[in-house]
Amino acid sequence: MMKFLETSKIYSLNKSTYINLRWISYIGQLTVILIVQFFLQFKFYYLVCISIVLLSILTNFYLLFKIKENQLSNLVATSYLSYDIGQLGLLIYLTGGITNPFVFLIIIPSIFSAQYLNIWSSIILVTLTSLILIILTFFYYELPHPETLHFHAPEYYLYSIPISIFIGLIFLAYFGVKFGRESQIRKKAYDKMQVIMAKENELLSLGGQAAAAAHSLGTPLSTILLIAKELKKEFGNNKKINKDLDLLVSQSTRCREILKKLSLNPNVEDEFIDSDVTLNDYVYEIVRSFQAISEKKFIINSEQFKNSVKSYKSPEIVYGLRNFIGNANKFSNKKIEIFLKSNKKETEIIIKDDGPGFPKDLIDKHMLGEPYIRTIDDSHISKYGLGLGTFIAKTLLEKNFANIIFQNSENTGGAEVIIKWNNKDLASI
User: Can you give the pLDDT at residue 252?
Assistant: First the structure.
């Protein structure tokens, strides 16, 4: 059971939020107890009830000062939420059981768990809540009331209350689990996206620094090379000096070639290198980087590309296009075709491969581009992954006004990704 409770760090509960909610709960409990005892003057075990609340306050102080983590682990959170269910169940047991109008509050910890903790914690807490509801239906002290009033509820009414609460508990817990998981997954995906963007920006920065260094050192090296050649002409008869000058010339030439390669870095972005490029430039730069490491054939068709509008070299677009072209390279058999098309209104890039194509069920359910996609057939997961990279690429391109379409080619059956921009939007990037 411990292994079920201790899972990934994405299952955690913010300590300060939970503590504040507990303060609200305990203040509310004390207020109701005092009003019923001293204002309404109903007889019940109010001292016992106050003692239970005070004990709970002590647990909150312990949580506040002794637990140092800002995020409560799955196990710790489950333990505290179980205590809260038991504490509220005991108070309700002393104050009318299932007839207590506040009995519905007992489902709140389970709903809280469904949002933030793993599925096993939710099952444990829902089960505990259900058992306590059953006990409170048959065993409880009478609801506090004036001595002149004898409260009696028919049996069918008593039994309908726990049933309705249980239905509500299952319903809310289910949706809590679904929405909680989706929220956690998207948070993880966006966190991953931020890391990727930081790396892209770092690479661009490093490229710019390298280009700046190449530009700055180019002139001094040319000067050294020129002087070395002139000295060689002057001292050509001196073999000892001539040997040293030959070495100086060769090493200066080598340094200049190295710097030339740095200055050709496609990711460069600084005052010496034009950072405003067309989509055609984007595609050719990315394809060249894959051609250096891939044995597959890349075919670029830009005959219908008439858009000469240049845009700022965006790391988002670089990563998005690189991801889709990289996927085509990964899953293709022999070749990847890239078509660039444009007219007066739209510009589009079509990336095709001759591989197995996208799983049909993912296309039919419009699940491509969503993080952590799950299919009926688990073999898809091992073969195609969980879709996090595709989600990030799609999100980044859509952030830059692109519209993404996923489909399989009618001719080859391979995967086909269509990326479209309105020319007005593309020009504003």
Answer: 79
| DSSP states of 341-369 | EE-SSEEEEEEEESSS-S-HHHHHTT-TT
The confidence score (pLDDT) of residue 386 equals: 45
Task: Give me the helix-helix angle, 108-116 and 74-94, nearest 10°.
Answer: 170
Q: Look-up: residue for tokens 């002409």?
A: 233
181: pLDDT strictly greater than 70 = no
3-class secondary structure, 336: strand
| pLDDT mean over 140-161 | 71
Give the side-chain half-sphere CA count within 13 A for 118: 17
Residues 142 and 220 in one domain: no
Count of alpha carbons within 13 angstroms of residue 339, beta-carbon side: 11
- What is the average per-residue pLDDT within 93-97? 92
User: Does residue 92 contact residue 103 with C-beta atoms inside 8 Å?
Assistant: yes
Q: Report how many domains make up the chain.
A: 3
d(CA 389, CA 399): 15
CB 91 within 8 A of CB 49: yes
Domain ranges, residue 212: 201-263
